[in-house]
Amino acid sequence: MSINDYADNLESVARYALGTSGAIEVCKQHPDVTISVGNLDAERHAYAIATQTLKRDGTMWMREDVMSAVKHELDMAADDGCPVCGG
After folding, report:
1. pLDDT per residue rounded down to tens, the chain (87 residues)
2. Which of 10, 78, 84, 85 has its CA 20 to 30 A from that of 30?
3. What's this model's pTM, rounded to 2 decimal places?
């Protein structure tokens, strides 16, 4: 697996965990924009989902990489609605 594939897969797992837990939403008009819901319990649950995905998937990801990817996705999510359309 190339380093780019590795990074893309980590990002996908992080977004999946955050979306499934309800920690982020995706703008209906701009699917590439994520919005933080601001729910700390949901964010903690996202870390748990990501960890379980790591264990279940059996890939060679390092736990620290997965946790960093979740944190990065949370940091990149907008705080007050979509910055493009305000939605």
Report:
1. 565 566 678 888 899 999 999 999 999 999 999 999 999 999 999 999 998 887 776 665 678 888 999 999 999 999 989 999 987
2. 10
3. 0.85
